[in-house]
Amino acid sequence: MANFKGHALPGSFFLVFGLWWSVKYPLRYLNRKVKGNCRSNKCYDRLELIEGILKALFSLIGILAEQFVPDGPHMHLVNGEDHSWVKLMNWQHTTMYLFYGISGVVDILTYFPLNLPRGLDRLSLGIAVIVEGLLFYYHVHNRPALDQHIHSLLLIAVFGCAISIMIEVFMRNDIVLELFRASLSILQGTWFWQIGFVLYPLGGAPEWNQTDHDNVMFITMCFCWHYAVALLIMAINYSLVYYCVNRHKKLPVIVDNGLIKINSKKAEVEASLLAGSDEE
């Protein structure tokens, strides 16, 4: 959709997954460090399954939104009257959602004992991100300078994320790569929203001058600020997870110490009673 909603929708999806990954991966990493071997692998496998279902569901919502909005193509690619293309921008967004949907389906299949190759889920996700980058690279040709520039900045996050995921195919469960992917996903999410605000101002806000170089300079600086905020969010979430994991680790120790004290007092009472009976 060539409007604000068309950018806010994918932005929300990327933001949700980025925030979720910024919590899930530190939680798994810190649990494994604390416990040596994570005894809740089944729990994390279920989370992967739920994540795949949500990914497929979000993709389906995106496809339906792109195709069946009032001014959408309604699954028509070519106009039968003049043989012209119908709403190719919507079709590009639909294609992006399609590949993310395929990634979600692969995530779901990976959960079941089908002996799928290890890393196939990461590979399918990496392909989806590459397709997204390819589509957006050819999305803005012959568009105003600011429009082209703001989308080209998005490609930095997209292809950075794609490279990270492709490395994850061979280096699975690497916390640095996973956190890097999460940060770039958050960046994609917030930047999609930023694109919407710049190209389709809300509430009667003045339109941006698409040819002013100062606007290009500001948008570049703004992109860096977005990533700084993404890194701050990552740091906060990691700190919160670290605090919760360590707090949970100390609780059994406190309980054990309490039981030891109770048992020792009980033993002292029994000993004193026995001593009193011996004196009698």
Question: Could you walk me through the main structural features you see in this protein, from its secondary elements to its overall organization?
Answer:
- One of its GO terms (cellular component) is membrane.
- The structure is a single chain.
- The chain is mainly alpha-helical.
- The protein has one domain.
- It contains seven helices and no strands.
- Helix 2 packs antiparallel against helix 3, helix 5 runs antiparallel to helix 6 and helix 6 crosses helix 7.
Shape: globular
Runs in which pLDDT lies below 50 for 5 or more consecutive residues are: none
Listing every helix as H and every strand as E from the N terminus to the C terminus, the arrangement reads HHHHHHH
Question: What is the percent of helical residues?
Answer: over 70%
Radius of gyration: 26 Å
Query: Sheet bearing the most strands, described?
Result: none
| Terminal-residue CA separation | 94 Å
Strand content: under 5%
- Our count of domains comes out at 1
Transmembrane segments: 6-27, 47-65, 97-116, 123-140, 152-170, 182-203, 215-240
Membrane topology: Multi-pass membrane protein
GO cellular component, one term: membrane
Protein name: Transmembrane protein 45B
